[in-house]
Amino acid sequence: MSGLHERHLAVSPDWLTLYYRNPLELTHGEGRHVWDADGNRYLDFFGGILTTMTAHALPEVTKAVSEQAGRIIHSSTLYLNRPMVELAERVAALSGIPDARVFFTTSGTEANDAALLLATAHRGSNQILAMRNSYHGRSFSTVSITGNRSWSPTSLSPLQTLYVHGGVRGRGPYAELSDERFIEACVADLEDLLGHTRGPAALIAEPVQGVGGFTAPPDGLYAAFREVLDRHGILWISDEVQTGWGRTGDHFWGWQAHASNGPPDILTFAKGIGNGMAIGGVVARADVMNSLDANSISTFGGSPVTMAAGLANLSYLLEHDLQGNARRVGGLLIERLRAVTAGSPAVREVRGRGLMIGIELVRPGTGEAAPEAAAAVLEAAREGGLLIGKGGGHDTSVLRIAPPLSLTVAEAEQGAEILGEALHAAT
Questions:
Q1: N or C: which end of the chain has fewer CB within 10 A?
Q2: DSSP secondary-structure letter at 149?
Q3: What are the Cα distances from residue 383, in Å, to 32, 40, 145, 360?
Q4: Residues in contact with 117: Cβ distance below 8 Å, sequence separation at least 6, in sequence order
């Protein structure tokens, strides 16, 4: 055990998880690579949990942070803030939400917390519809709507949460249905559930469930839900903390795979926009955003430094068409991963979209989750020079692959080769 690891354990909560038997101290990064304190170089296929969206040490972002820090670091939302207004204008225009208003936070957890406050205030209801297998953050309110036991440490809640089918396509009672029948069954479940409620405030859903193992419903499910929700006046919150900014390749936002009945009422974002800086936020229609009838500010949300970073990062993303790169290179990567895992009895499925890919592991000969295999592959991949993540619900074990969106073809092929070798060695 390293000295730093010992010091970490002495001052950190027991539940503050570290990857690997011998945890890594990452000291610097460049492009799609990072280095540890021992000088080892790794290809980064997890990006600080889908946060290093463009590249490590991107010069445009580094310059923007340095220049803004040299002017003023902090002011709070009590003062006019040019970088915050400029980023809000761009996010509002990109969101697809009409008459949009933007409120910045410091994390995805805080963004979802704010969205729940807006929805419950707007509707005068503390009931929330959420998806099974979901994850929405670590605050008291967001834990209470998270449909994943591994990340929900208490049943106490300020909200009444009701869980809906549909977030997981390949498991559960509707798994064997066609996509069309799957959507019909999930809509029928939602209709039945609403018959037992007193008017929920909102449905919150990740278009692709992140922590749950990169699972997703068929395209159009949330559009079909929207027809039901609209009849009842229930808001739709799209949690884009992991799916936003073009990561799925096909769409800029995950909700656009379900767009036939329009955009969500509320959209939350975080992670990739800051490229490592602490940025989260909420976009909502003006009438929803303005529902609060009490004072509210943010001390750190909209910080001039983080907003400057977000502006530079978003500009780079758009100017270099990283969404298109995610679609092209991500398509190649998932094809390579399917090839290197073909025939492995430990791999149940390789799924994903763009540069958001999951490999579901099972105990050979069964459909049972294999968390020990996921941990072993994580270690073996590290030994091969590749960093990946893991996740899954109560009955799944999934390797999570989400590199920076500037990933090259050569890096995709190298990462797939390392991962194939790690799977062979560890399962």
A1: N
A2: G
A3: 17, 10, 37, 21
A4: 141, 292
pLDDT at 151 over 90: no
Distance CA 371, CA 211 (A): 14
Which amino acid is it at 103?
A: F
Task: State pLDDT tens for residues 263-299.
Answer: 999 999 999 999 999 999 999 999 999 999 999 999 9
Mean pLDDT of 395-413: 97
Q: Which structure tokens are listed for 212?
A: 């749950």
Residue 317 half-sphere exposure toward CB, CA atoms < 13 A: 26
User: What are 13-52's pLDDT values in tens digits?
Assistant: 999 999 999 999 999 999 999 999 999 999 999 999 999 9
Q: How confident is the model at residue 246 (pLDDT cuts 50, 70, 90)?
A: very high
Q: CA 335 to CA 104: how far, in whole Å?
A: 37
What is the rounded distance in angstroms from the CA atom of residue 404 to the CA atom of residue 317? Answer: 11
pLDDT at 32: 98
* Burial of residue 280 (number of CB atoms within 10 Å: 0-12, 13-18, 19+): buried
Residue given tokens 């036991």 in the structure block: 149
Residue 156 has pLDDT above 90, yes or no: no
Q: Give dist(CA 236, CA 202) in Å, integer.
A: 6
Distance in angstroms (rounded) separating the CA atoms of residues 323 and 316: 11
User: Could you give the CA distance from residue 26 to residue 11 in angstroms, rounded to a whole number?
Assistant: 19
**Cβ count within 10 A of residue 367:** 12
pTM above 0.90, yes or no: yes
3-state secondary structure 76-145: CCCCCCHHHHHHHHHHHHHHCCCCEEEEEECCHHHHHHHHHHHHHHHHCCCEEEEECCCCCCCCHHHHHH
Helix, strand, coil in percent for the chain, rounding step 5: 40, 20, 40
Residue 172 CB burial class (10 angstroms; 0-12, 13-18, ≥19): middle
CA distance 106 to 121: 22
Which tokens hold the place of 280? 């989260």
Residue 200, Cα to own-chain centre: how many angstroms? 24
Q: Say which DSSP state 62 is in.
A: H
Place of tokens 């980023």: 87
- What is the average pLDDT across 194-199? 93
Q: Which of 391, 389, 383 lies closest to 418, judged by CA?
A: 383
